[in-house]
């Protein structure tokens, strides 16, 4: 299963969370979606209406990022970027309110019920939501493949550190491969 993390307008467009690398990785994400047609899910980072609608320390987080609550930002910014929105269906979208897709209710159970044992990750941000989701997948026992040229971040140094230093520490659980390598071996 291919998991696309947070390829949404809120990160692609001119917001305080703008992640310029989206435009660079989008062709590779699209190639993976094509290669794994019918086996791709799209994670969406959902925003609360106000900081008061968020639980625990997420309230403090959204007090700082109040301009990104849906009371101040058009909720359409939560939509997938146009090329991916055209590929998605409601049943292929997984809404999450935290960094990891594995915190979305029923997500792990859905994968297990479908007999999935390997996950391929693409999307943003390498050092936040992708990393949290990768760790969630490892913790749940999945074999993980990170498409190194289909992940990106607004912090290039942190992105590279994750690819060069963090993920290689777990070679028994996580593989790094380029989009072309993944497609060639149809992992």
From TrEMBL:
Domain spans labelled Isochorismatase-like: 2-173
Alphabetical list of InterPro entries matching this protein: Isochorismatase-like_dom (IPR000868), Isochorismatase-like_hydrls (IPR050272), Isochorismatase-like_sf (IPR036380)
Entries under Gene3D superfamilies matching the protein: Isochorismatase-like (3.40.50.850)
Pfam family membership, one: Isochorismatase
GO molecular function: hydrolase activity
Protein's UniProt keywords contain Cell membrane: no
Domain of life: Bacteria
Keywords: Hydrolase
SUPFAM superfamilies: Isochorismatase-like hydrolases
The protein, known as: Cysteine hydrolase
Organism: Metarhizobium album
Lineage of origin: Bacteria, Pseudomonadati, Pseudomonadota, Alphaproteobacteria, Hyphomicrobiales
């Amino acid at each position: 299963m291919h998991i696309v993390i947070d390829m949404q307008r809120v990160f692609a467009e001119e917001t305080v969370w703008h992640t310029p690398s989206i435009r660079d990785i989008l062709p590779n994400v699209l190639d993976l979606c094509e290669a794994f047609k019918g086996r791709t899910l799209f994670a969406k980072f959902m925003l609360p209406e106000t900081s008061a609608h968020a639980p625990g320390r997420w309230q403090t987080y959204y007090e700082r990022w109040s301009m990104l609550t849906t009371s101040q930002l058009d909720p359409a910014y939560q939509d997938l970027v146009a090329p991916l929105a055209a590929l998605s269906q409601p049943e292929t979208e997984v809404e999450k309110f935290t960094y990891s897709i594995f915190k979305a209710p029923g997500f792990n159970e859905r994968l297990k019920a479908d007999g999935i044992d390997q996950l391929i990750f693409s999307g943003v941000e390498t050092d936040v939501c992708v990393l949290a989701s990768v760790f969630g997948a490892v913790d749940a026992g999945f074999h993980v493949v990170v498409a190194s040229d289909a992940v990106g971040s607004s912090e290039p140094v942190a992105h590279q550190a994750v690819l060069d230093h963090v993920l290689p520490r777990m070679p028994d659980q996580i593989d790094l491969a380029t989009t072309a390598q993944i497609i060639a071996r149809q992992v």
